[in-house]
Amino acid sequence: MEKQLHLNLLASRPPMPGGFQSSSKMKMGPGRRRDFTPLSWSQYFETMEDVEVENENGKDIFRVYCSGAHGPVLLLLHGGGHSALSWAVFTAVIYSRINCRVVAMDLRAHGDSKVKNSEDLSADTMAKDIGKVVEALYGENPPPIMIIGHSMGGAIAVHAAAANHIPSLLGLCVIDVVEGTAMDALNSMQNFLRSRPKMFKSLENAIEWSVKSGQIRNIESARVSMGGQVKKCDESTRSPVVSTSIGEGIIEEEEDEEGEEESNKKRMKEDDQETKKESVFTWRVDLAKTEKYWEGWFKGLSSLFLTCSVPKLLLLAGVDRLDKDLTIGQMQGKFQMQVLPQCGHAVHEDAPEKVADALATFMVRHKFTDFKDGYMC
Predict the structure, then answer these.
(1) Catalytic residue among 151, 213, 225, 245, which?
(2) Active site residue 22
(3) Whole-angstrom Cα distance, residue 275 to residue 270?
(4) Each residue of 243-276: pLDDT tens digit?
(5) CA 255, chain centre distance (Å)
(6) First CA to last CA across the chain, in angstroms?
């Protein structure tokens, strides 16, 4: 069970034994607190827009964040429950390294996208969404596009590439999603989702929980991306159990077990007093209700990935994720693979520089683009 939870591919994994990795470990000295204040998307992307696409039921609207005006397009697809903002820090890093354009989109029923049928999260529907957004942005002659997807977004990227929804596709990059381990992890997925707090008394609380629980190990990324994972509750949905959920969800560091229960009681009492005057936040996406689509996202993914004719890059947080089909494919040189250790499941958030370096090197090697003047690789 523990191994399956650590291989969870729909939402970020629980913390590894020993807490944060060295790059994310920031011990608090006496009187010091980490800053969990939210950061704006505008510090990382140049523009934000809502893209309208025609659907059989009317119009769907997809929120996209963009940077750059020249070079190939990096189309970024986030994981389940996340949003385009999970790519914010990575975008700033990759844009400083290579000549490119970046388009990060909120997938169907995620982030700030608004669709007529938010219940349909099938791989086929979501893959078609990608093609429609590309067409709405660029018309019938889109620029060269490199599609990059994390977890669920990686699966959707493969489906979109295999179905030729992006005719100008240059290459495909999949981050930390492999069919074998994904299918194994589904059995324990609901238990993992139930273990998360239901609500937070503030966005700062949500950011704090994401960092201290190990969901996102990079505090800067958590400060910009968690706003895309949670939303303010309506008055009608507020519940008297909110503060209890918050108390259970916030994990204090450097507390001994003896003081933990006392601290929890004190915190819950403070939460009771503060809940009335603060906004309450909950998850934007109820991932538990998407279970009927999980198998469709991942089943057959390895063979589908291998059949894509464009150059392919697979970035993994651990070599244990490689299944049989991909092991054989990798030995046959059908794709390039790189393992980025000391990361959680949200590899591009935990280590944006390492992911940007791997992707930039891959794209320059394949002559998709060039390094920017003055950048020393």
Answers:
(1) 151
(2) no
(3) 9
(4) 333 344 443 333 344 444 555 545 544 544 444 4
(5) 30
(6) 41
